[in-house]
Amino acid sequence: MSHRRTRRQARAAALSPSRRHYPRAAAFVLAIAVIGSIAYALWEVNHHNTGSPAAPEAAVQPANLPAVAGQPKANFQRLKGRWLRPDGGYILEVANVLDSGVMEVSYFNPRPIRVSRSEASWDGAQMTVFIELRDTNYPGCTYRLLYLPASDQLAGIYYQAAIQQQFEVVFVRMK
Prior knowledge:
Blueprint: H1 2-14, H2 17-50, E1 81-85, E2 90-97, E3 103-108, E4 112-113, E5 115-123, E6 126-135, E7 138-148, E8 153-160, E9 165-173
Antiparallel strand pairs: 1-2, 1-9, 2-3, 3-4, 5-6, 6-7, 7-8, 8-9
């Protein structure tokens, strides 16, 4: 019978609370390490792409965009048409623009993305375009663009709200 007691004691020792908590503690430490690694990776990506995230309402004037001076204020009809963002295949379709600046715009990636606000305006002699997207994966993303008549392009800043980063972008007119 002493042989049976030894087996029971061995099983009880194997299932003791200190041994049962080892897998939980290891899983907890592993989870903390994974979360820390993900947080660090996101921080690195954020700081290496833009230096630091800027507010979406910041003034838009990329360094490589020339200022257009001395042009008379014309109507916004030059904005009508289909515009392609070559770096990703995104399409901006301007169906109509009223003289008040209210725009009728569609945005595709390649499926339609909801445009919550779109307007054209003048900033001095520069024709500007503001577009706000509100859809799945587009929680308030914005475009702040300038119309460049010499090259017939829209160029400016895309603010990706989900990751709080800005990117310089260009749209070319589709023929």
